[in-house]
Amino acid sequence: MFKQVNHIQRGLCQTTFSRSIYLHSGKRVRGLKRNPEEIFKTESGSVYGTTEENLQPLKTFLGSSYPISDNLLLQVLTHKSFGNGIKPYNEKLAALGSKLYNLYCLKHITNKPTTNTETAINGKNLDSIGMPLPRALGEREPLAIFAQVNKLNTVMFWKSYNHNLSFAQSGELKVSGQMMFALIGAIGFSHGKTAAENFIEEKLIEGTPSIENIANEFVEQNIRRGDI
Amino acid sequence: MLRLSSRAGARACANFRSSIVKNLSSSLYFSSSSITKHKTTYDNPLEYGTYKSNIYTHRLPESTAEQSPELVALHARLDLPKAYSLSTLSQALNMETKSEGLANNFGLNTLGKSLLSYYVAEYLLIKYPRLPMPIHNQAIDAYMGVEPLSSIGKSWGIQPDTNSKLEKYLAQEPFFMKYGKLRYLEETSKEEVKEDGVIELTGDEISQIEQNHGRYTPSEQDAYAASVRSIIGGLYTHTDELTTKQFIKNHILSRKLPIEQMFQFQQPMRELVRLGDKLGFKDPLEVRLIAETGRLSSHAIFVTGVFVGTEKLGEGVGSSLAESKTRAAVNALMGYYLYSPISSDGEELKVPSDEGYKFEGIVGLGDVAI
């Protein structure tokens, strides 16, 4: 609906057009703009925004050692699938976080004291690289399980094609893993690489349960299923 | 020119058989460590220091590596620190999977790839935080993909070991010479008579082409890229991460990359409108004609600007109104995507791995769906 308003200013006629837009609620109708209050909401009913309710699980997990701004935390929790990607989402954070985490894991496994004197290089045992557990440690699945166990993924802004499916089938596993990479990336961006590595060491490796135990169990499950 | 061997069918069968054997042998990773035929054994999967390969059982003695003039020359050419042993450098050049127990570069390659991935990604994410993800990935590939790393390897003067045992014997080449060369070919393929411009593909290579959507990467290119990554991994094992980072900066990130040439817009105006929505512009996006000349002539020129309120986002010149409008939208998008923040002192921003890093830049908000 268009309204035409005429203003007479210093003898000139200035025309201003204003329009009221209909915001559609309910099922999607092609060509109609949807009501943001309705679409920026998760399946479980959490409303998008930097509210305490949304950010509390991550803030509690981070503690006072690794503070992150509310806007960045909200970006960590937001996946590309939410609201057709119109809100800031965590792809770039995860891009840094995944590389940082992978590098950390490799350093972690190769820098352990070794009994392998024949092929270790300068005390670093590279024979474990590529083996099932060391490889799984750097992947997103154990991180996603870690997020689920620690209830870090209770509020995530994402959209599945079917939220009623299982953790893995609905895509929640992938989104949770990406969220964890993004969290590591956000600490890397905010406090630097060393702080992010300390975070991984303190909260994931030495966490309860440890990410190493989760990865080990994940590998054993895959072996039992015959996936590896 | 690619030619399929007449023996391709037989080879494919052999490959299939070998893949079955591989699949069977891979299960050996997880059985009890008391059986000696295991590829790798360990006391406990979580005790990484106890992993031990039963196939690659030893490293090249330093005294043998020192005899290879090519290794010594490569070490000096790359200005590697003294702590970097020649045996590790030789291991970085060893891609062989069927050598007589000599450790190959698999571990070094993985380590080097991880180091490269992190430092290249960190540099790009801080320097160009708003790059669309496909361009970001292309830029990473342009810095550390197989092709650039392969050409870097060649520029370092690494030579492949292509001579067969017979040729080496006839040329009276000492045995230690090969330890300074890139070893990726099996003895049987070295003996094959090669024809210039003709590449004979194995069954594995044909299936790889199908997986790579018709792209063929020669095994030599792969080997060169792996050797460069392994040399970087080797540097980390002998020195520290800071030295490795400096090496990556000097050899990989120092190369000029024309990122602005990587863009190609299908619907720039539409993309700009969506971007405006994402960034929450209060005023609507407007296209305004700034100047024109010769509208009725055969050489008309129009200057168009894209505005949000009083802010001009981009400007374009074209011989028609539509062209100038599209150019203005592209100009605005390029200005946004190629934005590179600077520090409060006007210097280049520090990256998260730098000493005294302070977050002053921005984090990319993600691409817009068009």
From TrEMBL, chain A:
Domain RNase III: from-to ranges = 70-206
SUPFAM superfamilies, alphabetized: RNase III domain-like
Q: Output the superkingdom of the source species.
A: Eukaryota
The question of whether Ribosomal protein is a record keyword is answered with yes
Parts forming coiled coils: none
- What processes in GO biological process is this protein linked to? mitochondrial translation; RNA processing
What keyword terms does UniProt attach to this protein?
A: Ribonucleoprotein, Ribosomal protein
**GO MF annotation terms:** ribonuclease III activity; structural constituent of ribosome
Q: Got a GO cellular component term for this one?
A: mitochondrial large ribosomal subunit
- UniProt xrefs under InterPro entries: Ribosomal_mL57, RNase_III_dom, RNase_III_sf
Q: PANTHER family annotated for this entry?
A: 54S RIBOSOMAL PROTEIN L15, MITOCHONDRIAL, LARGE RIBOSOMAL SUBUNIT PROTEIN ML57
Recorded protein name is 54S ribosomal protein L15, mitochondrial
Automatic annotation (TrEMBL), chain B:
Q: Where is the RNase III domain?
A: 71-158
SMART domains in the cross-refs? DSRM, RIBOc
Which one of the record's GO molecular function terms can you name?
structural constituent of ribosome
Q: From its record, what is one biological process in GO terms?
A: RNA processing
> Where in this chain does the record put each DRBM domain?
267-338
Write down any Gene Ontology CC term.
ribosome
Q: Which UniProt keywords apply?
A: Mitochondrion, Ribonucleoprotein, Ribosomal protein, RNA-binding
Report whether RNA-binding shows up as a keyword of the record: yes
List the subcellular locations: Mitochondrion
Keyword check for Ribosomal protein, yes or no: yes
Family per record: Belongs to the ribonuclease III family. Mitochondrion-specific ribosomal protein mL44 subfamily.
Q: What is this protein called?
A: Large ribosomal subunit protein mL44
